[in-house]
Amino acid sequence: MANIAFIGLGNMGGPMAINLVKSGHQVCVFDLSEQAVASVVEHGASTQTDASACVKGAEFIITMLPAGKHVEAVYLGENGLINHIASGALVIDSSTIDAQTSRKVAAVLSEKGINFIDAPVSGGVGGATAGTLSFMVGGSETDFNNAKAVLDNMGKNIFHAGDHGAGQIAKVCNNMMLSVLMVGTSEALQLGIANGLDPAVLSNIMNKSSGGNWTLDVYNPCPGVMENVPSSNNYQGGFMVDLMAKDLGLAMDTAVNSQSSTPMGSLARSLYAMHAAAGNGGKDFSSIFNLFNKI
Ligand code: NAD
Question: What's the pTM?
Answer without folding.
Answer: 0.94
